[in-house]
Amino acid sequence: MRTKGAVATCVALALLASGCNPNDRAFFREGIGTELYTADAIPATDLQNIYLDQLCRQSLPFVGPDVPSCSQQELPPTAWSLIVQAGMNDIDARCDSYLAWLDQKKRENSAVLAEIGAIRFAVDALTNPAVATGISPVALAAVSAAFGLATNTLANINTLLIQVDHTTVQSIVFINRRDFREGVLRLAVTNKPSAVHALRSYLEICMPMTISANINSTVTVFQQTGPGILGKRPLVAPPSIAAPFVPREPFRDRRPAEGSTVSLVPGADLIIPGYPQNARTYTPEVIATILGALCAPPTELKRIGPVTKALLEIWEVTDTQNGTPNGSIDDRERKALLALTPCPTGVLNAFERQTFMSAANVGLLVTLLNRVPIEGQLGSASLPDARPRVALVRRNCFAGRLNPLPNGMNVQVTSDLMSALREYDRMRKAAEAQAPPAPPPPC
Predict the structure, then answer these.
(1) Rounded to the nearest 5 degrees, what angle is found at the Cα of 371, between the Cα atoms of 367 and 374?
(2) Rounded Cα–Cα distance for residues 235 and 232 (Å)
(3) Kindly report the CA angle at 56 between 54 and 59, in degrees rounded to 5?
(4) How many CB atoms lie within 10 A of CB 354?
(5) Which of 134, 165, 190, 325 is the most exposed place for a label (fewest CB within 10 A)?
(6) Residue 168 pLDDT more than 50?
(7) Could you give the CA distance from residue 416 to residue 404 in angstroms, rounded to a whole number?
């Protein structure tokens, strides 16, 4: 009776211990609950903002210990895509460490099981009643139970991910990570919630439950369709990316059928040599895509003029692989422009598109503009808010020293304007460093 009582007590204690986790009771009674607010919301928000700030710093075009923080700046929509890429790099590092741990545990478990078997063999020999006297059957049973418990415990801990071949786990994770990255590059990540959703979706790829589900689904496909299907597609699809992402279909150059009439775009010969003889290559659809990549206003599609030519020259200067800027599109440039996505909202030329993806660069522009001796100061690190002052600086400070722009483009930031602002700031600092300090140079 005492033995039965002890067994009952042990079972009761085990059940009591399993119920001590408050999450178990909460999930059992309520699931995830019906309240939006939780006590973890405030610390989770703070930690998430700290993490995103670090990712933003990693995405900036700076190196060294003094990379500026993004926490006090309003990020432009174009910055979130770079933050997501920096976050995926961080997740890759953690995922690689987890995969290395799995591989090490697989190797260790095999060695430990072999060691337990060798020790048990030695203990069985030493406790053999034919060799050693005074050993009761109860003691023999206890020794056997102890080794059985050790072996079974290690086998239970040895989960599916440790039992399965490690190359299978790596293949699933690597394929899904590659496919997810390629998908994200084609999607628009323009705000904080979509960036967090993308990073959480990418994080799920390396979670044990996701890898196990992928292995199980692969086995199911193999059993239902045979091995041939596995060579025709990835083992599993990466986690789906839901709204608010908006995918962009890649441009397809559809040439008109021979003998069909091709519409012409007025003024296209200004930037396309040989037009309209090559109008079957430069269809209105192709030209519209090129204008979108150059950040040209929609009115230019009705008649291409000096604005588009100036935007093309700015792109040729910004894309250093284009050689000497000449304001004309060759075949290589046509292919490069067709591969670009349309200009994001808020940027007006290729230089702005490349430079002001980072909020820190917008802040630098505002700082340089404020140091020029013109009335008024900018208090916002917003590119649209800075445009009136850009026009003032162009007209009042650097007139005749910058490349001329067509009417209406004086609010745009170009590489020569940024160089002039940096040079003026250098001269101002040099004047202030003199003893006594000299007055700031005229702009």
Answers:
(1) 120
(2) 9
(3) 115
(4) 16
(5) 134
(6) yes
(7) 11
Q: What is the C-alpha separation between 95 and 169, in angstroms, rounded?
A: 12
Q: What pLDDT shows up at residue 244?
A: 37
The answer on pLDDT for 219 being more than 50 is: no
Q: Which two tokens stand for residue 155?
A: 């086998």
DSSP 125-184: HHT-TTTSSS--HHHHHHHHHHHHHHHHHHHHHS-HHHHS-HHHHHHHHHHHHHHHHHHH
Which of 319-338 are b and which e, b meaning 16 or more Cβ less than 10 Å from the residue's Cβ? beebeeeeebbeeebbebbb
Distance (Å, rounded) from C-alpha 297 to C-alpha 412? 13
CA dihedral 94, 97, 99, 104 (to 10 degrees): -160
Q: Write down the domain spans for the chain.
A: 77-248, 268-338, 356-432
CB count in 10 Å sphere of residue 424: 21
Q: Is 147 left (phi over 0), alpha (psi -120 to 50) or beta?
A: alpha
Contact 192, 80 (CB under 8 A): yes
pTM of the model: 0.47
CB 272 within 8 A of CB 329: yes
| In the block, residue with structure tokens 């206003």 | 297
